[in-house]
Amino acid sequence: MRGPNIVVCVKQVPDSAQIRVHPVTGTIMRQGVPAVLNPYDLFALEEALQIKDRLGGRIVALCMGPPQAEAALRKALSLGVDDAVLVSDRAFAGSDTLATSFALASAIRQVGQEQPVDLVFTGKQTIDGDTGQVGPGVAKRLGMQLLSYVCRIPILDMDSQSIVVHRWTEKGVQVLKSKLPCLITVLEGTSEGRFASLPEMIRAARQPIRVWNRQAAGIEDLSKIGLKGSPTVVGKVFAPSRRAERAECIEWEQDQAEKAVSLLWEKIRARQPELVEKLSGDNGGENGQERVSE
Amino acid sequence: MSESGGKPAERKGAARRKAALDPRLAEYRGVWVFVERDEQGVHPVSWELLGAARALADQLGSEVGAVVAGGAEESLESHCRDAVAYGADRVYQTVHPVLAGYRNEPYAKLLCELVKKHKPEILLLGATSLGRDLASSVATTLETGLTADCTELAIDRESRALAATRPTFGGNLLCTILTLNYRPQMATVRPRVLPQPKKDHGRSGQIQKEEIDLSEEEMVTKLLEFLPHAGGDRLDLSLAEVIVAGGKGLQRAANFSLLEELARALGGEVGATRAAVQAGWVDVQRQIGQTGKTVRPKLYIAAGISGEIQHRVGMEGSDLIVAINTDPNAPIFEVAHYGIVGDALILLPLLTRMVRGQAVATKTSGLEVCSSS
Ligand SMILES: Cc1cc2nc3c(=O)[nH]c(=O)nc-3n(C[C@H](O)[C@H](O)[C@H](O)COP(=O)(O)OP(=O)(O)OC[C@H]3O[C@@H](n4cnc5c(N)ncnc54)[C@H](O)[C@@H]3O)c2cc1C
């Protein structure tokens, strides 16, 4: 039985922890903000690598972005993926999530020409767009089963082409059984990431990365990519408005903390009387509320 | 709900494109909400969205539609009636055994079919694990625009388009996104970002049954089991009426007990900043902000929290915000209603004592006296 052929979609993103807004002009200061591999994608990579550790097979990392996004793919190679494809073309500029899902789906089909793709992994979302829309979009474009927010993959059986995953929801975990091929968006914190070993790092630095332009990615219809293929338009970008008035601060002398707190409590009570009324019921031992029997 | 007030210069692009609006798109009318529900109930975000949908529809002079679907008739009926009470004019109700428990495939199919049939202008979903999964699939299948995690929804006067505002660049800026030449215009909004509307049992609306052709045999993905979260995972901060939140200013993990005591006295929950979570002082479930929960309690007490924008976006919708911080220039005082400049480690226990005193006083005598001894 052959091991699974896996594609992991990764993105290079600006390290948003280091983005600052100019305090006077309110514009983004982009200079010197380093680019990193989207942290959520590390969990997708790890999940794919663990499958390969168990079942063998092959992993292709796929990234759409400008030429310098190659760095994200080098990182993926250093962690142990076998092959890397950068989909890069000026025609992709201005793509929103719908156009991006079109381009990625098309590139995945091209990868599938070499060998059918069994599994596609993506991170839960990126830290720059934060939408979580591209993974599900790619699944729909490819007609693959979508398994989102997956936190565990207890069963993957290549013979029967079946997979069981745990899908996280706010109330609990859904145990879903599905068929390959499918697309899985991986929840963060599902596993400890691995570190690149020195030989892998050397290999990653040397290995050629395939760069596909639009044609190589199999895209003919220009109306589906870039600005043209993007239904959403950015109307305006602006700094969040600050509330006009600042907090009313309680003035107090160093040794009068108690008085200050009591003043504060008065103000809270005046503003939220029902809340304070409830305290007598919810607090202090017995339950003051009537119980209604069914 | 406010007008998206941009300078005309910024909207030139929008106005120019307006001329190109395909007449077929003008057929699309109505503002829809997908109601997220299960046998236990409806996710409150759906009601919040209905409130917003009502305001948008009134501005557009159109109807509010609600999509309510499930596997069995039972609780569905009452959820349909509730949808009307929260603002829907028309409820599209679908019952089919395949729709018991959420799965992407049948729900995406249902929603796509309903949209194709009834052509709503706007379609809103909660930014939950279900809503995001479903919204992205539907938007891709219908090839239309979807804006995630909006913090404000308005109508752009010139283009009549949905102006969906969301944070961008790590929350440092906001951007307003329009879907001009595609319908429906889709958006997701996180729970508690919008206020919950008043329930009006006197409202009337139509409940319309919709059939769907689905068969379990055709469903590739099967739902084997549902494992509810245990204990702490069940915590739902977004529903708490009182939140006592702390940040790096509390200095040590142990000091979080000061928050716990005050929260207990107030009958509330403890929240935290990402910095406190990353320090390992508190569980990530309690993180409030852009990468954590959005909350809207009646009372939010922020102790030792600087009030960076990424934290503020998660709590600024709270009714009453009280800040305790040693630094009089901390940005938290820009969003707080009341503040005390001082050491949280000293002030928190005093406040807890005050609250407990209040509780005893109210209970024993009904008097509104608050002793400070
Ligand atoms: C992409 C991105 C996403 C993010 N998401 C989130 C998020 O979801 N939630 C979030 O909270 N943050 C988030 N952050 C981080 C955010 O930018 C801030 O760094 C964080 O909120 C700061 O936490 P803090 O207020 O606890 O710490 P600090 O900023 O260090 O502030 C500590 C405050 O405590 C005060 N203080 C010190 N000692 C005392 C004392 N004894 N008594 C009273 N006050 C005292 C100080 O004056 C200071 O104001 C995000 C950042 C990025 C880049």
From TrEMBL, chain A:
SUPFAM superfamilies: Adenine nucleotide alpha hydrolases-like
Keyword Electron transport included in the entry's annotation: yes
Entry EC no(s): 1.3.1.108
Residue span, Electron transfer flavoprotein alpha/beta-subunit N-terminal domain: 25-221
Keyword Mitochondrion on entry: no
One Pfam family of this chain: ETF
Source organism superkingdom: Bacteria
Enzyme class: oxidoreductase
Keyword line: Electron transport, Oxidoreductase, Transport
GO function term, MF aspect, one: electron transfer activity
InterPro entries registered for this protein in UniProt: ETF_a/b_N (IPR014730), ETF_b (IPR012255), ETF_beta_N (IPR033948), Rossmann-like_a/b/a_fold (IPR014729)
Descriptive protein name: Caffeyl-CoA reductase-Etf complex subunit CarD
Name of the coding gene: carD
From TrEMBL, chain B:
Family of the protein in this entry: Belongs to the ETF alpha-subunit/FixB family.
Residues annotated for FAD binding in this entry: 273-274, 287-291, 304-311, 325
Protein name: Caffeyl-CoA reductase-Etf complex subunit CarE
CDD domains found in the cross-reference section: ETF_alpha (cd01715)
Keywords tagged on the record: Electron transport, FAD, Flavoprotein, Oxidoreductase, Transport
Cofactor note text: Binds 1 FAD per dimer.
Gene: carE
Annotated GO biological process: fatty acid beta-oxidation using acyl-CoA dehydrogenase
Biological classification of the source: Bacteria, Pseudomonadati, Verrucomicrobiota, Methylacidimicrobium
